[in-house]
Every structure is written in C-alpha cells, then in structure tokens.
Design a protein that fits this description.
- 44% of the residues lie in helices and 10% in strands.
- By secondary structure, it is mainly α.
- It has one domain.
- Strands 1-2-3 form a 3-stranded antiparallel sheet. The protein has a two-stranded parallel ribbon with strand order 4-7. It has a two-stranded antiparallel ribbon with strand order 5-6.
- Strand 5 and strand 6 form a beta hairpin.
- Helix 1 packs antiparallel against helix 5 and helix 2 packs across helix 7.
- The longest helix is centred in the first third of the chain and has 16 residues.
- The chain is globular.
- It binds heme C.
- Heme C binds next to helix 3, helix 4, helix 5, strand 5 and strand 6.
C-alpha cells in the first residue's frame, strides 16, 4: 500500500511536467547512457538497447516475459493488440512514459458507445508494478521497431541493481 501511495505521488509530479509527446522514434529512443545495465535516452527516460548480434538488455527481456504473463491475455502477443484491447506496440509510438505508468497503475475505463472496455488497475499488483520499467522498455522497443516479434534470442546478464530492486519491491 505504501508503495502505491508513493507511486501515485511520483506520478502526480511526473504528470505535472508531462507535455504533448511527439512521435517516438528509434533516434529518440536511442540509449545514450547505461547505469548498471539500465539504459536511458537523451532525456533520461528508460529505454532498450540491442546489440548488432541481437543481444537485448536485461530489462527488455524481463519486460517481454512480464508482458506475456500479465498483459498478453488482453493486448495480444508481442503488443499487437486484440479485438478487446489496443495494440500497445502502436500506443507507445505517441504515449509518453508518465502517461503509460499512470494508466497501468490506475487503470482506465471506456464505457462510451454502449460497449464496455476496461483496463484494470495494476497499482496493487507486485508482478506488474515491480516491473513497470521492464514492461515499458520492452513495449517501447516494439513501438519504434527496435526489436522484432517473438522472444529475444539473447540477453545481457541480470544486473545487480535489478536483483536488489526486485528483492526490495517484492518484499515490501
Ligand atoms: C483484462 C484485460 C486487460 C489486461 C490484463 C491489461 N489490459 Fe491494458 N487495456 C485493456 C483495455 C480494454 C484497454 C482500453 C481501455 C479504454 O478503452 O480506455 C487497455 C488500455 C491500455 C493502455 C492504454 C492504451 C492506449 O492506446 O490508450 C495501456 C498503456 C495499457 N492498457 C497497458 C497495459 C499493460 C502494461 C498491461 C499488463 C501489465 C495491461 N494493459 C493489461 C485491457 C487490459
């Protein structure tokens, strides 16, 4: 619960500065720094990294797995969408990081036109909120065409930072 409150406070700050997001591209998503296996773009937003031999960073690989256990059932394999829920590999072409985090934490409902379309809130689900950046960078990579469909064939080792964050988040 404490984490949820913190997350909401954090999102409020982030959303306060969020502006209209331009189309995301491979150039904008290019990793310019790497802190213990966590890659960031020029604006400091989490992003993916892929080596010429197809090796992806740990978070992208982890995001692939988390996405397919928690989101796939509604949003389709590889973020391609379904008749029920939108293609996130498409949504993230224009949706910024803060908006993504807030929708996943708070959920969203669209009851217009007589059809019920519900995105559940995951703010209390550790299997999701402990891996939000992982899922984000995976979908970002899919959105800008950085990685193909399917399971990434090779990945970097799990960084110490990822192990520590996971232990504290899952244990809290
Ligand atoms: C029970 C089905 C279901 C599950 C599971 C689910 N979603 Fe959704 N999601 C939806 C629906 C339906 C919508 C569209 C809601 C609307 O129309 O406002 C949606 C919308 C979204 C959006 C907004 C997309 C846009 O283009 O505006 C994001 C982002 C999102 N989901 C992320 C996720 C992530 C990440 C996961 C896994 C952690 C997930 N969803 C799991 C049903 C689901």
């Amino acid at each position: 619960m404490a984490v949820r409150v913190l997350l909401s406070a954090f999102l409020t700050v982030l959303l306060g500065v969020a502006s209209v997001h331009a189309q995301d591209t491979k150039e904008a998503a290019k990793a310019v720094s790497n802190e213990d296996g966590k890659y960031l773009d020029a604006e400091g937003t989490p992003t993916y990294n892929i080596e010429p031999d197809g090796t992806v960073d740990w978070y992208t690989f982890s995001g692939y797995r988390r996405y397919h256990s928690e989101c796939h059932v509604c949003h389709g394999p590889d973020g391609v969408g379904s008749t029920y829920a939108p293609a996130l590999a498409n949504s993230l072409k224009t949706m910024d990081y803060a908006t993504f985090l807030s929708i996943v934490a708070e959920g969203r409902q669209n009851l217009s036109g007589g059809k019920e379309s519900v995105m559940p809130a995951f703010g209390d689900n550790k299997n999701v909120y402990c891996y939000l950046d992982d899922i984000y960078v995976y979908l970002r990579a899919r959105a800008v065409g950085g990685i193909p469909r399917g399971r990434p064939p090779k990945k970097e080792d799990k960084p110490e930072g990822a192990k520590e964050y996971e232990a504290s988040c899952m244990g809290s």
